[in-house]
Write a structure and sequence with these properties.
- 18% of the residues lie in helices and 28% in strands.
- It has 146 residues and is an alpha+beta fold.
- It has two domains: 1-37, no CATH class; 40-84 and 96-135, Immunoglobulin-like (Sandwich).
- Strands 1-2-7-6 form a four-stranded antiparallel β-sheet, with no helix packed on it.
- A hairpin with a 2-residue loop joins strand 6 (120-124) and strand 7 (127-133).
- The longest helix is centred in the first third of the chain and has 12 residues, at 26-37.
- The protein is rod-shaped, with a radius of gyration of 21 Å.
- The N and C termini lie far apart (55 Å).
């Protein structure tokens, strides 16, 4: 199995990072870092019975996560939380600020062979797992000729 490096998954972000790395102010760099941080990466796996969507949501309570399904589209979103504020003395300069506190939002189009009313989810150790059962394929029925 080949390991995918994050920059390979998001080549445009990497391209912009390389281009702007030494050409922007600290405020713009911080803003760009925050945009990258708030993405909700997901893994989607499939077996013969179901699809599973796994999303890392560290530090987020299951009560702050909302999952909806409408017309073939599943949306996962989080409730906005207050930022964990760190006291910074006036003589100190923040060199790097990557912790993100805000909302996450991700929409996925699901295939037609699912049982939408049986979708369920669980949250464990900061990982959201959404289980999407597949519809059992119809078995061939044979008609007796009389």
């Amino acid at each position: 199995m080949k390991t995918i490096i994050r920059n390979q998954m998001f080549p445009l972000i990497s391209l912009f990072d390389d281009f702007f790395e030494n050409r922007t102010s600290d405020e713009v760099k911080q803003s760009m870092q925050q945009v990258k941080s708030c993405q909700m990466p997901v893994d989607i796996v499939e077996n013969e019975r179901e699809y599973k969507v796994l999303a890392n949501l560290p530090g987020i309570s299951k009560n702050d996560v909302k999952i909806s399904y409408l017309e073939g589209q599943m949306t996962i979103e989080t409730v906005e939380r207050e930022a964990a504020k760190t006291e910074v003395e006036t003589e100190q300069k923040v060199l790097n600020c990557e912790r993100y506190c805000g909302t996450y939002h991700r929409s996925l189009y699901l295939p037609e062979n699912i049982e939408a009313e049986k979708i369920n989810a669980k949250m464990e150790n900061g990982v959201l797992t959404v289980i999407i059962p597949k519809i059992e394929p119809k078995k061939h029925s044979f008609i007796e000729i009389k």
